[in-house]
Amino acid sequence: MATHTDPLAPLDLAFWNIESDEHPMHLGALGLFTADSAGAAQHAADLLTARAPRVPGLGMRIRDVWYGAGGAVREPAPAFDPADHVRLAAATVDFHAAAGALMERPLDRARPPWEAHVLPGADGATFAVLFKFHHALADGLRALTLAAGVMDPQPDLAARAHRPSEPAPEHGLLSWLPRPQHLPGAVRARLGALGQALDIGASVARATWPVHSSPALTALPTGSRRTAGVVLDLDEVQRIRKTTGGTVNDVLIALVAGALRRWLAERGEPADEVRPRALIPVSRRRPRARQPQGNRLSGYLIRLPVDEADPLTRLRTVRADMDRNKDDGAHRGAGAVALLADHVPPLGHRLGGPVVAQAARLLFDILVTSVPLPSLGLRLAGCPLAEVYPFAPLAQGHSLAVAVSTYRGRVHYGLVADAEAVPDLDRLADALTRELHEVATAAGV
User: Do the Cβ atoms of 334 and 204 come closer than 8 Å?
Assistant: First the structure.
């Protein structure tokens, strides 16, 4: 019987090919649940194992193929066994320490590239689940859909989780390319793609120089990982937004800039000339549409105003840069470099994977990503999800990545770092909490 295969899209193929043992390309999320019994963690593991075969996508593996000029395909895994992916760990007193050790381990590329690790709390009152998904299998929103499929049933969960992507207005180089209506559609498409690629390429060239980053954000890859989490009050963030203008996301990004400034100062490192380039991923998924597998991503690129001492000036600077990116649209600019993957043949991804992995350090200094979660309460085995920390992939040459989600009135930052380069990640987490209070005080809220 023939097996249905789905060729990997160019961006998925790029993520698949840049992985190495020192540079695992998976994203994750650590969910903390309130246990209702001593056996809650075991029950949760049993439910995850039983439900996984019913979730489309979790039984799909990725297989390299050399026909078709070096691509890869997504196909149903023969004899898929969810017990190979769901593991019950020993009890722990530190969920983040356990998560960091597990995030170090590359996923088994011969199997569907995901894992769920159930971590019982030593206190018996809590347990956690660490989900890991290879970036070639899912971006943040797709991973949310897959993880939600093994939670206790909730109505319309996937639709609530998605937000519309922003339209890209026509401007810049593309606006003067000849596109008369009598040209064939294929010609118009090629001209549009060429204009987009040239716009992105020019922006990338401008973004790679000059660099005003910090050595603290740079690291030779060791494969080691450390994670930390921060919980903030969303109402306090909203009050700041209403007073200063902009969006909640503007405030959350500005908090990262201020926390980095505090962290560097406590390390004894100068921050007055540090303006690291932050890549802000932007989803291109459509709300309530059938969600394709893999990645649908573009991005914005901004300078984090770490060098600015005044918290409100930092916030205004972030808001202005984000507004400028939104005006330009998510399909142009240096942050949209992922879209160039569409113009590279599969063999180019296969042969150029190591080069692409190293190029991330030239383009940006830190990833700051937001993963929206549904506002309704999630449960597993009847146990409520109390906290959830998203973890972004750590690009090669980077020492830190930041992901953030809002869930049930609270903001959750998930920090991932190279454990050898950033042994003091908890100090950065603490700096985020203190930064929120400083910004709130400065804004008079």
Answer: yes
CB-CB contact of 52 with 142 (8 Å)? no
Q: Which residue has the tokens 């895994």?
A: 77
Give the pairing type, strands 366-370 and 379-380. Answer: unpaired
Domains with residue ranges and CATH for the chain: 6-153 (3.30.559.10), 183-377+389-443 (3.30.559.30)
For residues 372-405, b (16+ Cβ closer than 10 Å) or e, as one string?
bbbeeebebbebebbbbbbbbbbbbbbbbbbbbb
Distance CA 323, CA 316 (A): 10
By C-alpha distance, which of 410, 375, 367, 409 is closest to 391?
Answer: 367
Instruction: State the Cα–Cα distance between residues 155 and 139, nearest whole angstrom.
Output: 22
Could you give the C-alpha distances from 124 to 45, 49, 128, 276, in angstroms and in order? 15, 21, 11, 42
**What phi and psi values does residue 113 have, to the nearest 5 degrees?**
-80, 75
**Token pair 């994203």 is at which residue?**
27
Q: How far apart (Å, rounded) are the C-alpha atoms in residues 272 and 410? A: 31
**Is residue 398 a contact partner of residue 360, using CB atoms and an 8 Å limit?**
yes
Q: Dump pLDDT digits (tens) for 32-87.
A: 999 999 999 999 999 999 999 999 899 999 998 876 555 788 999 999 999 999 99
* 3 state SS for 121-176: ECCCCEEEEEEEEECCCECHHHHHHHHHCCCCCCCCHHHHHCCCCCCCCCCHHHHC
- Distance between CA 230 and CA 431 in Å, rounded? 10
Q: Taking Cα atoms as reference points, which of 297, 190, 229 lies closest to residue 32?
A: 229
More confident residue, 177 or 371: 371
Q: Quick one: tokens of 92? A: 């722990």
Structure tokens at 106: 């590359």
List of E strands, 250-399? 277-283, 297-303, 366-370, 379-380, 383-391
DSSP state of 53: G
Among 114-128, 185-199, 213-227, the least confident range = 185-199
Q: Which amino acid is at 188?
A: R
Tens digits of per-residue pLDDT, 94-132?
Answer: 999 999 999 999 999 999 999 999 999 999 999 999 999
Contact between residue 261 and residue 426 where contact means Cβ atoms under 8 Å apart: no
* 144 in Cβ contact with 296 (< 8 Å): no
CA separation (Å) from 50 to 146, 150, 152, 429? Answer: 14, 9, 12, 36
Q: In what order do the strands lie in the sheet with 226-233?
A: 226-233, 410-417, 400-407, 366-370, 277-283, 297-303
